Amino acid sequence: MTTENNLHPTIEKYKDIALHIIEICKRLHSRNMLSAADGNISYRISPTEILITPSGIAKAFMTLSDMAVITLDNKIIHGNPSTERLMHLEVFNSCAKAKAVVHAHPVTAIAWSIAKPNLEKLPSDCLSEVILATGDIPFADYARPGTQAMGDVLKSFLPQHRALILRRHGAITWGESLDEAYRGMERIENSAQILMTAIQLGGLNPLPPEEIKYLYELRKKIGDILL
What we know:
Low-confidence stretches: none
CATH topology: L-fuculose-1-phosphate Aldolase
Number of helices: 8
Oligomer: single chain
Distance between the termini: 40 Å
Mean pLDDT: 96
């Protein structure tokens, strides 16, 4: 058993990263993208190990001593890691550049996946920020929580997409830093809210085809990072 004054050696070594994870959990909670014990965040601390948030604990109120450590082949080194860790491991094992993964439950984004089950992605042709900041935000198929299927449904989207909505569940983002992965989650929910409001005000109207083409070309120049 560990306390704040007697942390597991790995958590003590990467204390600053663990504190940053806790800070991001609080940000997500304040924006209504995490409730109760929902969601999970992880960070690759070495070629073989990751820090990951725990199972069954409200992330907005977790402490350093709650943090878990696992290997990329799913061996538990310390703590009680998230039951959804197979999803994180799929990202790390499929994306060489991935350093951080954020999984949250953004309300409007989830609602899109329930109300519009046949959509393949958020309507990026209506909103320049979606294209410029993410490329696209696709919908991944529903998978039973806590199973290997949560990782399997991501495979066809990796590594080309860093922001995904998980149908009837939540969203997942990854990046080369914790801040990038967090920005991606903000972007998903903000975009989903704007598009929902547009529907309420009268409907979605896409940008002209030549403008959409221009924006995708500009995104290529920006690169893969989430803005």
